[in-house]
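# step 3/5: fold
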Amino acid sequence: MASVEPLTALSRWYLYAIHGYFCEVMFTAAWEFVVNFNWKFPGVTSVWALFIYGTSILIVERMYLRLRARCPLLLRCLIYTLWTYAWEFTTGLILRQFNACPWDYSQFDFDFMGLITLEYAVPWFCGALIMEQFIIRNTLRLRFDKDAEPGEPGEPAGPLALANGHIKTD
């Protein structure tokens, strides 16, 4: 039997960081198109986003594991959205002390100190829903096969092969 174990917290953090980074670039590109009709779709972010998203989603993962049996989905997403605002404000405030905060919401009507804005409440809520239902749930299903030997792409590593997180025997 193959030695199969869940991803480490560091591996999950890495996946969450890359996911958040990618979503940030795509969101800012879409926002630029919708607001300014910019057909170049310039998506932007900061290297700080890797730490911010990776850490935040790892914390939301912990929340999900504790709340999934206790709270309905929409309430969990509201909690995640509130967490997102608290995290964005906190990390923005810290980064601002070093003149390194990559965002400024001062031009929005409902901003607070330029660090957070209520205009993003719906996108953050939708992002929380997607994050839980697709990103976190599927990342928690991923497994490492410690005994797998590298082979040709698409070929099983030996007599046992993993299929959708389950050991498949031929």
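# step 4/5: annotate
The CA atoms of residues 105 and 170 lie 56 Å apart.
# step 5/5: archive (pending)
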